[in-house]
Structures are given as C-alpha cells and as structure tokens.
Amino acid sequence: MQTLNIIRPDDWHIHLRDHTTLKLTVPLAERTFARVLAMPNLTPPLTTVPNILSYRQRILAVTQDEHFSPYFSVYFTNDLNEATLREAKQCPWILGVKLYPQGATTHSDWGIDDIHKQFAHLSVMEELALPLLIHGEVTTSTIDIFDREARFIDTVLQPLQHRFPKLPIVLEHITTAEAVDWVQSMPAHIAATITAHHLAFNRNHLLAGGIRPDYYCLPILKRHHHQQKLQQAVMTKNQSQFFLGTDSAPHVQDKKYSACGCAGCFTSPIALPLLAELFAAHQALPLLEAFTSINGARFYQLPINTQRLRLTQSPWVVPKAYTTDDLTFIPLLAGQTLSWQCQPIEGQPNE
Ligand code: DOR
Ligand code: ZN
After folding, report:
1. What is the mean pLDDT of residues 130-153?
2. Which of 29, 45, 48, 236 is most buried, taking the most CB atoms under 10 A from its CB?
C-alpha cells in the first residue's frame, strides 16, 4: 500500500456558504485543509470588514479543529470604497478583493458592471499590494461559454495588468491553455488557482452520453487539451504561480438537479484523494505538495503549515450525499470508489 506524507494543504478558494450549511462545510474542509480562503458571494455579499469578521465568528463557532484558519476576501461591488480597502489591508484574515464580472456566476449580481469605473480602487489596491482575485470570464451573452475565459484574458485582464503592473492578481479556477500561458508569461505576483475537478475532468465528463449536472461549474469544463495543459502546469517542477483552490461549491440537491441547475461542484471531501489519484497516474506524486501546500502560502506571504497530512492508497466509497439539518448536498463522484484517502497527522500547529 503506497502512502505519502505531505505538508497539510490549504484551499485558497472555497465556498463554505453560511448559517446551517457551515455545520457541514467547515468540518469537511478542516479534515484536509489547515487554511481556506472562503469566498464572499453570500446573500447578501460580504462587502465590509465588520461583516467579514462576523462571518468568521460563525465559522469558528462550528470548527472542530482549533487550529483551522479561515481567510477571506472582500466582494468587489460598484459601491466599494477606499476606506474598506485600507481596513481590509490591515485585517490579518483578509487576503484580497474578489472581482466577479456582473452576471458571471452564482451570486454575482452585485459584481462589477464596468471595470473601467474601478480604476481608482485598483490603483489603491496596487499601492497597498492588496491582491485582486478574479473570476475571469466575460459575460457577453453572444460570446460562446467555452470561450469566455480566453476572451476575458485578451480584452480585460491583459489591459488591466498593463495599467496596474504591480497589482498582485490571482486568476481564479483557471480552465484553459490560454490562462496557463498568460500566467506563465507574468511575474511572480501574478498567480492562478486550479481546482481538482478541472485537472481531473473535461467537458466530455459533463456532456458525453448524457448531461451530468454534478460536473457543471463555472468556468465550465473545457476540451481535453486544456485539461492536459493544466495538468502539465501543476506536474512540472518550479511552477510556483499555480496553487490549489478547490472552488468546492455546494448547492442543495433540488437546486442542483433541476431544469436550470446551479453551477458548482461540491468537491471539498474528494479534492485531495482525487488529486493523489491523478498525480499518481502521471507518476507525479512528488510534485503534489508544492501545488497543495506550498505555492499558495508563499504567494499570500503566510507561513508554510507545520502540520502534515497522510495520503494512503486505500479504496473508499464517496458518500452518496451529505446532509445537515434538512439540507442535502450531493458531492462530485457520489457513490464512486476513489483509490486514495487522507488523514490528518497530529502535530504542532502553525505559530
Ligand atoms: O461553479 C461555480 N460555483 N463557479 C463560481 O464561480 C461560483 C460557484 C458558486 O458559488 O456556486
Ligand atoms: Zn468560486
């Protein structure tokens, strides 16, 4: 039986949701991850530092691991103000500002309609070195859904980076060869998160032989060659601009499996087993740790975790559903067998 002992991973992009759902998402996340960056697309969105701090308390109220640390980003709305940016920079739990183009995805209605109107804020963020976390897709209805990320890079991101060259940027949950190429062409303060599901799957898993709503997320899964390019990026040495953000995004069963199903793959419980399986299949297990546990911490200038996680090649069946109170969530790969599992190893927490 193969085992692998790695630095405890962090998840730099997760949707924990709120209230009752936290009783499920938080214990699941902390089984694997020491730190998470929880997304602000709640209803209403997290737009101020005090709101983020009270959300943090709701999360801490349900943690079972006292060393688990949630981090946050401020939702970038058209009403953002400079004082919030300065306050956010001072808050040790806030790592950036999340930009959703309006209408791009779940709960993005409060997002930015025209980035050109936000240049003053972007300039303050550049001065503060406060990272901009971007959902990188154009929202024009006439642009094909499979082209929206590549188009965003050309028409929005590249000009923005040119105008604010020192602004730290994380292009979130990248899905295309164009995104990999763009990040690799940039200096170290430009990075990208990649999900486990975009590494493990492509659009055939979503669409061939029947529509599978479990695999529907945004940005949508792309062609196989894009998947291969993402794999290459994380399975090559010294690719420190790429790190794990699972984008685990649970939706209640009725909303996910409906005539107009919600976007989001609930992957928190399977992300590390799935990655171990994938990296093992490519003889790349020694490169897993940099992607899951080192590159992100370095980018956000946080210490590397001192705790460790043991991955064991030992089959387990992904639960058919997770429930909390009267809410049911179906994880990606529900009922399927994965060949790796993980257990935290007790050890000293971070200072
Ligand atoms: O698939 C997604 N689901 N993509 C996002 O950007 C948001 C997320 C969610 O919140 O459900
Ligand atoms: Zn997300």
Report:
1. 96
2. 29
